[in-house]
Design a protein that fits this description.
Layout: H1 5-10, E1 18-21, E2 25-29, E3 37-43, H2 58-74, E4 82-85, E5 101-105
Antiparallel strand pairs: 1-2, 2-3, 3-5, 4-5
Length: 114
C-alpha cells in the first residue's frame, strides 16, 4: 500500500469518497469539511508540492481549474461563489504532501482565510 493517503484512495487501497475521476485528476470528499461543499481535487500523478510542478504541468493545472468550476456548478455553489485553495508546505498548512486543491462553497468566506 502507498504511504500517500491520496494515492491510496485513488488506488482503492484506502476508503474515501471519490466523486469525480478522469484520466488526470480525482475529486475526493474532505473527511473534515470546512464548508457545506469541501472537495479535494488531486492529480492522479503523485506530485508532492506546488514547487515540484514544472512547465509540462501547465495543462494539468488548467485542467484542475476547469474541473473545479465544473464541480462548483454541479454542486450548486458557482453562482454564489466558491473558493479554490492550495497550500504549499507545512507552514502554509499542507498536511498531505501530494498537491491538492480545496474546493469550498456553500457558505460565506472570510478574509484573510487563516
Amino acid at each position: 500500500m502507498s504511504t500517500c493517503i491520496f494515492c491510496g484512495i485513488i488506488a482503492g487501497e484506502i476508503q474515501g469518497k471519490v466523486l469525480f475521476q478522469d484520466e488526470s485528476v480525482a475529486a475526493i470528499e474532505d473527511v473534515n469539511p470546512q464548508a457545506p461543499l469541501h472537495l479535494l481535487i488531486v492529480p492522479l500523478r503523485h506530485i508532492e508540492t506546488l514547487l515540484d510542478l514544472n512547465d509540462l504541468d501547465v495543462e494539468l493545472m488548467g485542467h484542475i481549474c476547469s474541473v473545479a468550476t465544473r464541480l462548483a456548478r454541479e454542486h450548486g455553489v458557482a453562482e454564489q461563489g466558491f473558493r479554490l485553495v492550495a497550500n504549499c508546505g507545512a507552514a502554509a498548512g499542507q498536511s498531505v504532501f501530494h498537491i491538492h486543491f480545496h474546493l469550498l462553497g456553500g457558505r460565506p468566506m472570510k478574509w484573510p482565510p487563516g
